[in-house]
Here is the input.
Amino acid sequence: MVPEGSPVELDLRLEAVMEGVLVTGSATAGLVGECVRCLEPIKDEMSARFQELFVYDDHDHDPDEDDETSQLEKDLLDLEPVLRDAVVLALPFQPLCQEDCPGLCVECGARLADDPDHGHDAAIDPRWAGLTKLVQDED
Ligand SMILES: [Zn+2]
Ligand SMILES: [Zn+2]
Here is the structure.
């Protein structure tokens, strides 16, 4: 998710066309989330590109027409819904701390990325036993 009040950097280009104004741009925003596999907090940056045609407000507008069309309201561009859509589309569906995150050990909950050779040939190390309990309690 994009944290509330986080700065969004905008880079906009406006072009006057026959029907209205064509807005092309990109938005860059900071992201926070957690890895879906190991629950490690993620801080990332995302950028979304978008293009939207804002048509001039037309009083003969047919209400049956496509409601998705963005309209210029008194020469103002309402970019917010466009931005929101672009950002939502650009958000990773299942964020990962790293592309091949191995996740958590099913037995003890250790983060395997921190400990790739992790295994349980022997009984669980007593140092981890408390953690196991903690992870189970959270379930
Ligand atoms: Zn991860
Ligand atoms: Zn383990």
User: Anything to note?
Assistant: Residues 105, 107-108, 110, 118, 120 surround zinc ion (ligand 2) (CB under 6 Å). The chain has a mean pLDDT of 80. The beta strands are 8-16, 20-34, 41-55, 70-71. Residues 102-139 form one domain.
